[in-house]
């Protein structure tokens, strides 16, 4: 058993794999790279703050303790952790890369794969919940919270296993010819397997939403209520943004599998595709709060409290404080209808 993992702590293995898969490993910390790294870190900090505000809003308000909000909170948690993983990945890239041991490299890349897997499974859980709630017209009550939490825990467990397969042994250490160009310590079959799984899941989600739309459009009364259609539009936007942001990265990984080593120069620019994919974690909280007045108010409440505190401090210091205006805005969800006391963003008239 020790021989299988004997190379995991070798300080020369990462350099060996990068030298084999890349003509000239681009790991120098040039000024342009440093500026790009700083921008990515700032972007990731914004991702963390945004999704943390969403998680706080969902946790503190009992109106949001429904199955749908639990799944959206889980998606926000995966996006938050993705921001943390991207920061770690950025800080451990460049000139630091070639000094890493394989186990450190696997931890760096595996954390990103785990959060990506969690996001995909969260989208699948949301689609299944919508299909059950709308197409099957089922009621959700508080007694189902335990089942929802178990489903969320299972999705994270599967994500951990899927992202941890390389460090468990599915890698190309000792088999350079099987190595990925984009991820030089990952075996090409593993990369293809992960992309295939994600593609199949996303295709299944699209199929579920098509079926839901067909059911809603052919239904009457509560199933086709404006609130239900608004929610369906919201989760469809979330799915569309995910596919838009991650499709280029998935495409580059498929190209990586198809190209022999050092034959596709485009693979050396893969980091731009993954940087673009990080925008997904930034945009998701914007979509939630844009589409829901209730959630928007709850998310902005900490900022309002901070403004109130700043105003009080300003008056104490003799500086006029800012007058706080009530948080009023409109969105496509709210137009043409009066918002009830329950969170209609996530629960239509057919659900509790």
From TrEMBL:
<dbReference type="GO" id="GO:0038036">
    <property type="term" value="F:sphingosine-1-phosphate receptor activity"/>
</dbReference>
<dbReference type="InterPro" id="IPR004063">
    <property type="entry name" value="EDG5_rcpt"/>
</dbReference>
<keyword id="KW-1133">Transmembrane helix</keyword>
<feature type="transmembrane region" description="Helical">
    <location>
        <begin position="189"/>
        <end position="210"/>
    </location>
</feature>
<comment type="similarity">
    <text>Belongs to the G-protein coupled receptor 1 family.</text>
</comment>
<keyword id="KW-1003">Cell membrane</keyword>
<feature type="transmembrane region" description="Helical">
    <location>
        <begin position="270"/>
        <end position="290"/>
    </location>
</feature>
<feature type="disulfide bond">
    <location>
        <begin position="172"/>
        <end position="179"/>
    </location>
</feature>
<feature type="transmembrane region" description="Helical">
    <location>
        <begin position="35"/>
        <end position="58"/>
    </location>
</feature>
<protein>
    <recommendedName>
        <fullName>G-protein coupled receptors family 1 profile domain-containing protein</fullName>
    </recommendedName>
</protein>
<feature type="transmembrane region" description="Helical">
    <location>
        <begin position="112"/>
        <end position="128"/>
    </location>
</feature>
<keyword id="KW-0807">Transducer</keyword>
<keyword id="KW-1015">Disulfide bond</keyword>
<dbReference type="InterPro" id="IPR017452">
    <property type="entry name" value="GPCR_Rhodpsn_7TM"/>
</dbReference>
<keyword id="KW-0297">G-protein coupled receptor</keyword>
<dbReference type="Pfam" id="PF00001">
    <property type="entry name" value="7tm_1"/>
</dbReference>
<dbReference type="InterPro" id="IPR004061">
    <property type="entry name" value="S1P_rcpt"/>
</dbReference>
<keyword id="KW-0472">Membrane</keyword>
<feature type="transmembrane region" description="Helical">
    <location>
        <begin position="230"/>
        <end position="250"/>
    </location>
</feature>
<feature type="transmembrane region" description="Helical">
    <location>
        <begin position="70"/>
        <end position="92"/>
    </location>
</feature>
<feature type="domain" description="G-protein coupled receptors family 1 profile">
    <location>
        <begin position="50"/>
        <end position="288"/>
    </location>
</feature>
<keyword id="KW-0812">Transmembrane</keyword>
<keyword id="KW-0325">Glycoprotein</keyword>
<feature type="transmembrane region" description="Helical">
    <location>
        <begin position="149"/>
        <end position="169"/>
    </location>
</feature>
<feature type="disulfide bond">
    <location>
        <begin position="259"/>
        <end position="264"/>
    </location>
</feature>
<dbReference type="GO" id="GO:0005886">
    <property type="term" value="C:plasma membrane"/>
</dbReference>
<dbReference type="InterPro" id="IPR000276">
    <property type="entry name" value="GPCR_Rhodpsn"/>
</dbReference>
<keyword id="KW-0675">Receptor</keyword>
């Amino acid at each position: 058993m020790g021989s299988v993992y004997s190379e995991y702590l070798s300080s020369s293995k990462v350099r060996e794999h990068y030298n084999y898969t890349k003509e000239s490993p681009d790991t120098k910390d040039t000024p342009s790279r440093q500026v790009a790294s700083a921008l990515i870190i700032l972007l990731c900090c914004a991702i963390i703050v945004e999704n943390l505000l969403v998680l706080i809003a969902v946790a503190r308000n009992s109106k949001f303790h429904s199955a749908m909000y639990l799944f959206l909170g889980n998606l926000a948690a995966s996006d938050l952790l993705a921001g943390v993983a991207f920061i770690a990945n950025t800080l451990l890239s460049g000139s630091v890369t070639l000094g890493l041991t394989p186990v450190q490299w696997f931890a760096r890349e595996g954390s990103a794969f785990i959060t990506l897997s969690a996001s995909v499974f969260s989208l699948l859980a949301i689609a299944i919940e919508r299909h059950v709630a709308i197409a099957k017209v089922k009621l959700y009550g508080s007694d189902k919270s335990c089942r929802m939490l178990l489903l969320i825990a299972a999705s994270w467990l599967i994500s951990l296993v899927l992202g941890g397969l390389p460090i468990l042994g599915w890698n190309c250490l000792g088999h350079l010819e099987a190595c990925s160009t984009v991820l030089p310590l990952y075996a090409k079959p593993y990369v293809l397997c992960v992309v295939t799984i994600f593609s199949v899941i996303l295709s299944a989600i699209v199929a579920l939403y098509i079926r839901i739309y067909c059911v809603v459009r052919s239904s009457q009364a509560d199933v086709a209520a404006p609130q239900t259609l608004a929610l369906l539009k919201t989760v469809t936007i979330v799915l569309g943004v995910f596919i838009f942001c991650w499709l280029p990265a998935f495409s580059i990984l498929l190209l990586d599998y198809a190209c022999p080593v050092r034959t596709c120069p485009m693979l050396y620019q893969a980091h731009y595709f993954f940087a673009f994919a990080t925008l997904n974690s930034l945009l998701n909280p914007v979509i939630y709060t844009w589409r829901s007045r209730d959630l928007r108010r709850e998310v902005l409440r900490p900022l309002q409290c901070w403004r109130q505190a700043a105003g009080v401090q300003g008056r104490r210091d003799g500086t006029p404080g800012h007058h706080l205006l009530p948080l009023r805005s409109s969105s496509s969800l709210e137009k043409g209808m009066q918002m009830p006391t329950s969170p209609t963003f996530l629960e239509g008239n057919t659900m509790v």
